[in-house]
Write a structure and sequence with these properties.
The structure holds two protein chains of two kinds. By secondary structure, chain A is mainly alpha-helical. Chain A is built from 24 helices and four strands. In chain A, helix 6 packs antiparallel against helix 7 and helix 14 packs antiparallel against helix 15. Chain B is globular and about 70 Å long. Chain B folds into two domains: about 300 residues, Alkaline Phosphatase, subunit A; about 35 residues, no CATH class. Chain B is of the alpha/beta class. In chain B, helix 9 packs across helix 16, helix 12 runs parallel beside helix 14 and helix 15 crosses helix 16. Classes of the chains: A mainly alpha, B alpha/beta.
Chain lengths: ~450, ~400
């Protein structure tokens, strides 16, 4: 393996797995179909929401100390740790790690949290239902799927937004909630610098009224809650056909997906995530142009990103985020997907969930709809680094009865990126565990 | 244990400075004053009307037939304390516990936890420029304090604390952090990080903090209270040294259903935090101000699931010897239908930033003008009288 191959495996994947041969160029990994969801399937959102509804009803009826409520609650907690295992197994097992990284990227672009927290497994279901099917398709389709998904509607208060002049609004004195409309413009499509103002937010919020989550946990359109009339968003008129329709909402989302500012915003965001906190302007220009020309063809744009000369710098200038750091560590230790799937809950907590909290990236709980920060300094903090060191020193012996020889492990994990200084320090460790830990805690392993 | 005990002494500061590359010796010379401030963000919107019950208001029993059914602990002729906070009664009697009633931030109507907390921690008006809203008010306070350095303010725990974020350097640590690395391992790690400019500062700080700060856990307590003891002990250790401001958060206040049950744990944690801090701080408690604030209050009416929903006016809790306790400040707006905000919430009668501003003014001598222009831009501190001793 050359230095260039190794850089690409880290920048567009999770680094090397033990004994792995260099896969296709990262871009080529996107040609085939996604095989990972079928191999590691999870429950769907509707079933999770309906189990949660049952839990709420049951608690209300049976009070606090009810064995059946406890059983439902425990099953939901189990689904959440199982979702962690699935996510790691897919990343470790995939012949196309770049595809998995892209799934993580777009899931973070449409970041949401489960409220209440017990519904956290539904955040994973959201990713499987809205992100994964479209990650090499068209952004337009991903946008529609994500924005119209029950978890997104719930997270950004859409079911509470009622047209003030709709029958339901008039009867009960209800009004608009602009939360989703604002985030669609600011975060999901045009970007904060985009050409919209408060009036556009207000009009879009009016247009989006009527979307609710029904009793089966599915998105539905309740005409009685939809604001009547037409709405002007970015100078274009929507609705007004006589009766409010979901199709009008889909039309405005399609237009936002196709907007040049969306192309620019998302080209920049991709480059920031994969290449550098301050990416080369020419790289962003090229990606934005391709995005626009291909009408948001994510396979084409992602492949172009991975093969762009400006994305091939041999300096790793970004910090691996905690989740990617953990996966890269597991891959380097040659932990396999079947092993991960066999972990007990306690192992998932000790090796993944608790460390993620200490490293600053609690599982499925970004602070807001803007997702996790990208900047190097947000992650390489004293607390975050201390937790990485602790994981590097204590997790490998927990995962591996026999640790690899620390000196060989350097080659296995970093190959040509390990310099003499690092090799000398690892060789100077007191024992194998400390040597392995040093390598995992080293700057070279925490960059990408 | 020995390392920690060592650090508690005044001598330790000079010694540990060598191991703390973030702090130059010069900054130790100018620690900003002797007062201590602990700010607690109660995430999830604490129900002020349940914690500080206006038992003298005749509407209360009608609005909250379930929640007001059990007897609170009488504070005066009008107010009762939630019965699960009985451990704090001695502080009330000693004038070390107080409340400010019917306060809020300028946040209105949308009642989103995230937006409400963001504004509470930014300490700005709702229409402040985004750049200002990304800074926390404690960070802006640090920017005005002569002699403030990277450890003047500490966040405790894993939760990110926007109230501290901004250009002024601050420190953060989770007390239970443990680093099981031997002397040789630490030496090698130090060499690794020193060689990479991106990791040099954070790496050195991680190694020195983890060496100096033994993992603090709540010995003797179990479960969620052990974590609180850890927070309090760690915070007290820092405040005995060169730290003046500690910020942390307590979650779990979003009591939409079965509130009587749901309040037990967060109340127990809050009570424990205050009591352990008081015990651990010892003599320093007298110059300490503890402020617990939440993003908004909750509906005055109990809802259909024996809980309450997101509201507007709420309660700020104060403790510590540096503030005048034993009193409920703030104008009581009443629970009459016409007195409610939007027909459902307690009407806020003052901005909680005015009271927080008074505390900063009294504790650290920050001039009123500076607080009104920089720390809480646009606030009128005249509305926050009575908090200081």
């Amino acid at each position: 393996m050359t230095q260039g191959d190794t850089i690409l495996a880290i920048r567009f994947g999770f680094g090397w797995r033990a004994g792995q041969v260099p896969a296709a160029w990262p871009g080529g990994q996107l040609d085939g179909p996604d095989t990972m969801e079928r191999r590691y399937p999870g429950p769907d959102t509707a079933s999770l929401l309906s189990r949660h509804r049952h839990l709420v009803q049951r608690r209300r009826a049976a009070g606090p100390d009810d064995p059946e409520s406890d059983a439902i609650r425990r099953a939901l907690v189990h689904d959440d740790t199982a979702a962690v295992q699935r996510m790691i197994a897919r990343a470790l097992d995939s012949p196309a790690p770049y595809r998995e990284r892209l799934v993580h990227f777009w899931a973070d672009h449409f970041a949401l949290r489960a409220m209440p927290r017990i519904l956290r497994p539904a955040v994973s279901a959201f990713g499987d239902e809205t992100i994964r099917p479209h990650v090499t398709g068209h952004f337009r389709d991903m946008l529609r799927a994500a924005i119209l998904h029950p978890m997104m509607l719930r997270y950004l208060d859409q079911p509470r937004s009622v047209g003030p002049n709709s029958p339901a609004g008039r009867r009960r004195g209800l009004g608009l909630n602009e939360n989703l409309a604002r985030e669609v413009l600011e975060l999901h499509t045009l970007g904060a610098q985009g050409p919209y103002d408060q009036q556009d937010v207000h009009q879009l919020a009016g247009l989006m009224t009527g979307m609710i989550v029904d009793a089966d946990g599915r998105t539905a359109f309740a005409e009685a809650r939809a604001e009547p009339g037409s709405f002007v968003v970015l100078g274009r008129r929507y609705g007004g056909s006589g009766q409010p329709r979901l199709a009008d909402i889909e039309a405005v989302l399609d237009d936002l997906a196709a907007h040049p500012h969306t192309a620019r915003h998302l080209a920049h965001k991709l480059a920031v995530h994969f290449v550098a906190d301050t990416p080369p302007a020419a790289l962003v220009d090229d990606l934005a142009a391709l995005w626009q020309a291909s009408e948001g063809d994510l396979r084409a744009v992602s492949a172009a990103l991975a093969s762009h000369p400006l994305a091939r710098s041999d300096r790793l200038v970004k910090a691996r985020k905690p989740l990617d750091f953990l996966i890269a560590g597991l891959a380097a230790l040659n932990v396999t997907a079947p092993e991960v799937m066999r972990w007990r809950q306690g192992m998932v907590r000790r090796v993944v969930l608790h460390p993620l909290i200490g490293m600053g990236q609690p599982w499925q709980e970004p602070r807001g709809p803007d997702g996790w920060p990208e900047g190097f300094d947000a992650w390489i903090t004293p607390q975050g680094l201390a937790t990485r060191i602790d994981w590097a020193m204590t997790a490998p012996p927990r995962l591996r009865r026999r640790l690899p020889d620390a000196r060989a492990f350097v080659d296995q994990a970093l190959g040509p990126l390990a310099d003499d200084h690092l090799r000398r320090l690892v060789a100077g460790a007191e024992n194998q565990a400390e040597g392995v830990g040093l390598l995992l805690a080293a700057p070279a392993f925490n960059r990408r | 244990m020995q390392r920690r005990a060592f650090l508690k002494g005044g001598l330790a500061l000079g010694c540990s400075a060598a191991a703390m590359p973030l702090i130059s010796h010069a900054t130790f010379a100018a620690v900003p004053g002797d007062a201590r401030l602990i700010v607690v963000i109660l995430r999830g919107a604490m129900d002020g009307l349940d914690v500080l019950r206006p038992a003298g208001a005749r509407e209360l029993a009608l609005l909250r037939p379930g929640l007001a059914a059990d007897d609170g602990l009488a504070l005066d002729n009008f107010y009762q304390l939630h019965p699960r906070l009985g451990g704090l009664m001695p502080l009330w009697q000693a004038g070390e516990l107080g409340f400010v009633q019917a306060v809020s931030t300028p946040y209105r109507d949308r009642r989103s936890h995230f937006d409400g907390q963001d504004l509470l921690e930014a300490g700005t008006a709702t229409d402040a420029p985004p750049a200002l809203r990304r800074q926390g008010w404690l960070n802006r306070l640090l920017q005005t304090m002569p002699g403030a350095h990277g450890q003047t303010a500490f966040s405790v725990g894993h939760d990110s604390m926007p109230v501290l974020s901004g250009p002024a350097a601050t420190a953060g640590w989770a007390p239970e952090t443990d680093l099981q690395v031997g002397v040789q391992g630490r030496r090698l790690l130090a060499a690794l990080y020193a060689a990479d400019p991106g990791f040099a500062e954070a790496g050195a700080a991680a190694l020195s903090l983890s060496e100096i700060l033994e993992p603090v856990t709540g010995e003797g307590a179990t479960g969620h209270l052990a974590q609180i003891d850890g927070f309090a002990r760690f915070a007290a250790d820092r405040l005995r040294a060169d730290t003046r401001i500690v910020a942390l958060s307590l979650a779990g206040w979003d009591t939409h259903a079965a509130q009587a049950q749901a309040m037990r744990r967060p109340l127990a944690r809050l009570e424990r935090l205050i009591l352990t801090l008081r015990a651990e701080l010892g003599g320093l408690w007298g110059q300490t101000a503890f402020l617990a604030m939440t993003e908004f209050g909750r509906t005055v009416r109990e809802n259909g699931s024996a809980g309450t929903d997101h509201g507007t006016g709420g309660v700020m809790m104060t403790a510590g010897g540096a503030l005048r306790g034993g009193q409920v400040l703030g104008d009581w707006p009443g629970l009459d239908d016409s007195a409610l905000y939007a027909g459902r919430d307690l009407m806020p009668t003052a901005d909680l930033r005015a009271y927080a501003g008074q505390a900063l003014h009294g504790l650290f001598g920050v001039p009123r003008g500076v607080i009104e222009r920089q720390v809480f831009p646009g606030i009128d501190m005249a509305a926050g009288q009575g908090l200081l001793r």
